[in-house]
Amino acid sequence: MSPIREKLAQVLDTHFDARWGAPYWLDRCATLGFDPRTEIRDLADLAEFGPMPLEELARRPIEDFIPRKFHGELPRFVLSETGGTTGSPKRTAFLPEEFEAGFVAPFLHAAKLLHFPEKVHWLFVGPTGPHVVGKAVRACALGLGSMEPFSVDFDPRWARKLVPGSLARTRYTEHIVAQATAILETQRIGVIFATPPVLEMLGDRLDASLRKSIVGVHLGGMAADAALWRKLGAEWFPNAVAMAGYGNS
């Protein structure tokens, strides 16, 4: 059996165990008309489950999705919520090794290949609170020998409610940028981790000496076009190694 099939069989056995499985998946099993532990043999077979009812993830307790065998280990889990793009926030939880494999190890691998700066202070401008990126960025910084990042909390759920171009949205954006600028002007920041629009605003406002002191930039959460990439290196942060990434819960 291939490693992927072996892992899939393990996950299915765990979640659909009659005594120790996950309450949600045991309830769902009763409506499937087949036994997933015998019928699902490869990743392509997962389509047999059909679409995931997203509202189930929003309204049911998180314990319903965690196999009962782990209910005595809940303090180990890393909790995460979506940003609200798909409607009501959805919740999930990762074992520490799953969180590491999904959100930290790939970044550290890419960072080593690109010689991303190590042992320098980070500024993170993005979602903290229940969002997984705030937890991942801390782990990534620590993994490169940096201390916990300085941070400015950006609430995507609130930002989406503000009309583009409105006074409310402008004031909120200015509030975020002002906080980030204050940190950059008072702390020895070497890496900025932010969305492309925030990096653009910072690049346009910071003085040249501050911009040149940035040796690493990570763009996350949104797409960045070619024009932004050119300005990123040629105008805003000429001494920075640039990376980009996107992930979600």
Which labels suit this protein?
elongated; 7 strands; 249 residues; 5-stranded parallel sheet; alpha/beta; single chain
Euclidean distance between termini CA atoms: 29 Å
Biggest sheet, strands in spatial order?
Answer: 4-3-5-6-7
If you compute it from the alpha carbons, what radius of gyration comes out, rounded to the nearest whole angstrom?
A: 21 Å
Query: Which percent range describes the beta-strand content?
Result: 5-15%
Total helical elements:
11
Mean pLDDT: 93
- Give the beta-strand count: 7
Strand/helix succession: HHHHEEHEHEHHEHHEHE
Helix content: 40-55%
Low-confidence stretches: none
Profile the largest sheet: 5 strands, parallel
Q: Would you kindly provide a written description of the structure presented here, covering whatever features stand out?
A:
This protein has helices at 3-15, 23-32, 36-39, 54-59, 96-114, 132-143, 156-161, 167-186, 196-205, 208-213, 226-236, and strands spanning 78-81, 91-94, 121-126, 150-153, 189-194, 216-220, 241-245. Helices cover 47% and strands 14% of the residues. The model has no long low-confidence stretch (mean pLDDT 93). Helix 6 (132-143) links the parallel strand 3 (121-126) and strand 4 (150-153). With 249 residues, the chain is α/β, with parallel strands linked by helices.
Quick structural overview:
With 249 residues, the chain is of the alpha/beta class. It is built from eleven helices and seven strands.
